[in-house]
Amino acid sequence: MPIRWKDHPNNTPLVAPTPGQHNDRIRTERLGRSQNEIEELRQAGMLVEKMSKSIVSGETNQ
Q1: Is residue 30, in this structure, part of any structural domain at all?
Q2: CA angle 9, 18, 44 (to 5 degrees)
Q3: What's the domain range around 37?
Q4: What is each CA distance from 4 to 7, 17, 28, 32, in whole angstroms?
Q5: DSSP of 30-47, one letter per residue?
């Protein structure tokens, strides 16, 4: 659900990022990984690209 600020100059809706939307940016800018390293990890199956609905919603199997 987008948020609209009543007195915001352009009143553009603000939407939260989707889970994982900024993963590659964090991996390169914050963790110092190159695009090649990220791709190698992705091909090796070491990176989670999308979280399951149960993880996002906080469900547990307990």
Answers
A1: yes
A2: 145
A3: 20-46
A4: 9, 16, 32, 35
A5: IT---HHHHHHHHHTT-S
Q: 3-state DSSP call for residue 11? A: coil
Domain assignment present for residue 60? The answer is no
The arithmetic mean of pLDDT across residues 27-55, rounded, is 86
Query: pTM of the entire structure?
Result: 0.55
**Residue 16 CB neighbours (<10 A):** 9
Task: Tell me if 27 is assigned to some domain.
Answer: yes
Domains: count for the chain: 1
Residue 35 placed within a domain? yes
Question: Which residue pairs, CB below 8 angstroms and at least 24 apart, start in 21-30?
Answer: 23/47, 23/49
Q: Residues of the chain with pLDDT > 70: what percent?
A: 61
